[in-house]
């Protein structure tokens, strides 16, 4: 079987048997299409260890990130593991590939002061009563106040909120449900949006249902619109060209730890399956501590 045909069959396996998401299947396809470009559309059993090593070497030479090379190594291994199980190849040449260690970049984090100023300006704009301004203020307050993912934010319904207790019930990765707390500023912003903003937006469509955040036409607000909102508002506040909703999640986690929150409590709030995932924020906090020391200590 030719390599390209094997990749097509492998993608069908990923989608129908392993039930991976379309985005994940596309990522596998993109990685393996690069393999075809590098070694040619030869027979699958003609792709040997030297060909795979040459492919990854070329990626390194053109400046691909270590994380990209590591991901492509994993994609090749998955392809040949499947091919071996399907008896399409006698041996698996990917077994001897060495996966490069991924560099773990620290996430960009906004200062509490810069976010405070931004949210204060958005609160002032929301006071004018514009439904979109009320919604945008509520969305950012909730993103930062709870540390939820953008998919979790957009999936919220009105019934998922408990404004008195300051909690939201979200559906996270793997369809795992958890309850996250949020503070008084977010509760105030949400209350104002629910009373003065959402009814106006909901009147523009019959399909709003119980969705919490509504778009300009009255339908459920999608992740792309939230990305645009954060890029337009939070990016300049952080001094970066691009900033997504995860910047507020990173900032929330870091500020919680800076304020003395327990690491396991932060893990529960963020919905991380592994404590190791949460621990990166301790490095961010240490970096901020070291920066403050270097700026302030006379013998730094």
Report on the structure:
The chain is mainly α and 300 residues long. The chain has 13 helices and 3 strands. It has a 3-stranded antiparallel β-sheet with strand order 1-2-3. The mean pLDDT is 87.
How are the strands of the biggest sheet laid out side by side? 1-2-3
List the total number of helices.
Answer: 13
Mean pLDDT: 87
Beta-sheet strand percentage? under 5%
The low-pLDDT segments are none
Biggest sheet character: 3 strands, antiparallel
The N- and C-terminal alpha carbons lie at a distance of 64 Å
The sequence of SSEs as H and E is HHHHHHHEEEHHHHHH
* Structural class by helix and strand composition: mainly alpha
Q: Nearest-angstrom radius of gyration?
A: 24 Å
| Count of individual beta strands | 3
Q: Can you tell me the overall shape?
A: globular
Helix content: 55-70%
Brief account:
With 300 residues, the chain is mostly helical.
Q: What tags apply to this protein structure?
A:
300 residues; mainly alpha; 3-stranded antiparallel beta sheet; 3 strands; 59% helix; globular
List the helices and strands and how they pair.
Blueprint: H1 3-16, H2 22-39, H3 49-61, H4 66-85, H5 112-126, H6 131-146, H7 150-154, E1 161-162, E2 167-171, E3 177-181, H8 184-202, H9 223-238, H10 246-258, H11 263-270, H12 275-278, H13 280-296
Antiparallel strand pairs: 1-2, 2-3
Helix pairs in contact: 1-2, 2-3, 2-4, 3-4, 5-6, 6-8, 6-10, 10-13
């Amino acid at each position: 079987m030719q390599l390209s045909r094997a990749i097509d069959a492998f993608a069908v396996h990923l989608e129908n048997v392993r039930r991976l998401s379309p985005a994940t299947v596309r990522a596998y396809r993109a990685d393996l299409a690069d393999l075809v470009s590098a070694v040619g559309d030869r027979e699958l059993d003609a792709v040997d260890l030297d060909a795979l090593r040459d492919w990854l070497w070329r990626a390194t030479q053109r400046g691909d990130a270590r994380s990209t090379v590591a991901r492509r190594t994993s994609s090749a291994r998955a392809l040949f593991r499947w091919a071996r199980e399907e008896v399409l190849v006698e041996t698996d040449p990917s077994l001897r590939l060495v996966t490069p260690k991924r560099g773990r970049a620290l996430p960009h984090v906004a200062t509490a002061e810069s976010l405070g100023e931004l949210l204060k300006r958005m609160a002032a704009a929301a006071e004018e009563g514009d439904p979109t301004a009320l919604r945008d203020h509520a969305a950012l307050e909730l993103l930062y106040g709870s540390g939820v993912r953008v998919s979790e934010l957009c999936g919220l319904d009105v019934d998922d909120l408990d404004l008195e207790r300051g909690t939201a019930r979200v559906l996270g990765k793997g369809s795992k449900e958890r309850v996250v707390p949020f503070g008084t500023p977010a509760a105030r912003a949400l209350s104002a949006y629910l009373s003065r903003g959402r009814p106006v937006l909901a009147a523009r469509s019959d399909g709003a249902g119980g969705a919490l955040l509504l778009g300009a036409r009255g339908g459920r607000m999608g992740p792309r619109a939230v990305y645009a909102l954060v890029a337009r508002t939070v990016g300049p506040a952080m001094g970066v060209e691009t900033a997504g909703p995860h910047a507020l999640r990173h900032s929330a986690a870091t500020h919680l730890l800076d304020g003395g929150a327990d690491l396991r409590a932060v893990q529960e709030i963020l919905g991380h399956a592994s404590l190791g995932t949460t621990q990166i924020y301790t490095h961010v906090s240490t970096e901020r501590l070291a920066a403050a020391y270097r700026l302030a200590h006379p013998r730094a």
